[in-house]
Design a protein that fits this description.
Distance between the termini: 92 Å
CATH architecture of the largest domain: Alpha-Beta Complex
Number of helices: 15
Number of domains: 2
Helix content: 25-40%
Radius of gyration: 27 Å
CATH topology of the largest domain: 2-enoyl-CoA Hydratase, Chain A, domain 1
Length: about 525
Amino acid sequence: MLNFILQLLLCDLIILFLFIMRKALFLLVFIFLMSCQSVRKNNLLLEKRIPVSELKKDIDFTYNKLKKFHPELYWYISKEDLDYKFDSLKTSLKDPMTPNEFYFQLSPVIASINEGHLRLRALSRRYTKAEQKAFKNKRPLFSLMDYQVVDDRLFIKENKENIKDLKVGTEILKINGEDVSALIKKYRKLISSDGKNQTYQKYFLNLAFLNYYTLEKGYLDSVTLQTKYDNRIADISIKRQSKTDKELVTDKVQSKVTAEQKVQDYDINSKTYNRSFKFIKADSSVAYIKVKTFSSTLASKFYKETFEKIKHSKADYLILDIRDNLGGSLSEINTLYSYLTDKEFVLVKTPEMTSKTSSMHQNYFRGKTFFSKIYIAVTYPFFLAGNYFMSSKKDEKYYFREFASKPTKPKHNAFRGKIYVLVNGASFSASSVISAKLKYEKRATIVGEETGGANDGTVAGVSNTVILPHSKLALPIGLLLIRPNIEFDNQHRGVIPNVEIDPDFGNLTDTEDKTMKWVMDDIDFRTSITGKVVR
């Protein structure tokens, strides 16, 4: 009898298992088909020509959302001027357009607001899993060389693998027959910096040029470059190379990151560290910290360990290099600042919003998978309630409680010596916030080029990405006005260094770091006077 019951239970378990497997298989097939359908639907939309009436509705939709959510929309442009630009665009539309053709018309109007974080996003072509796998097994087409955009021209800055014997300084005149200068001018209209700043665009365009080109053309297997060197013009073809077996094995091995690499925020793809620390001189008198982006990943642990080492070394000087740092986490720069001061501080003023419910519109589900959306949906009501109660109203303005806007005490091992902060036009957002605060408090000497981010703050923090209803273009709108806790200069510029040094952006052959050289010369001069730090 017992054996019979056990057999029945076993049969039931087998049936249940087969039922679950059947359902799981059905679900996998459903997800696969939906994924394929999503790719197909997206790519068909890229070719769809949208009627003028619907494009105009998208323009109105965009402006209304900006007025509703952006807390400082008319900071750098008057309402009259912006009204005129939106109205002029609507008037100029005569023919139907594809979404990305429309993108190149609307994006310059968004850029005219002159708020560097505010940037319209075009529609990208999507690829099937099979296509993605094929791309993964090949090297990126344009990664064979490093490039530099100088004014309206494109040059080869480094030929990593001596492809076609192209030399440093070779100008690329055309890509697949298209004039490069015309492309640069076209893409330049899509980019804005904060206010009157003039240093940011050249860096961002240099980073984004090939991304814009790929956005328009898709992932190509080969291109023909018309080049010019020593007044000789030649056509050079470059082809996407398949990765070697060794490279494919290395890619798999490098997916494992050590605990030490995690603290330094190691990037597997670029094989570089986001944060690094070293002593420049043999006597450990000069400490150097390089931060490429304020990612917040294990930042507290990195700074704790780093400043413990600096304290035990008795270093007199600290160089904080945040050149080419486009910003990131307010929490991280608040932590970093607590190691650079000897008094209690408030890093930023309480962020402003357009309404008490603004922060509730931030992108809670965006970027999540279908299953993770279902999982986190349970916590969504708590997210909404939390953001509502973190908002307040005072003097007809709405504010959001932010960690970095509260008093913070300095760390026990905060650095007490002389600080230099290295900046350039690609020091943006959070990099500008901490630079402005350090300069205002006279806690550091800012050296280099005017920062790309504004001295008086920015609109960022969290965003609401709105999708235009007909073109499906995406527009992330910053919800918080974040301003460093300083007296504002109201110049609509970046952080102006205490010591301005031209980095000679267009020089492709001179490898001397002029900013770093000035700092080291200044340190040598100071120590030569008394043998000790002179602040």
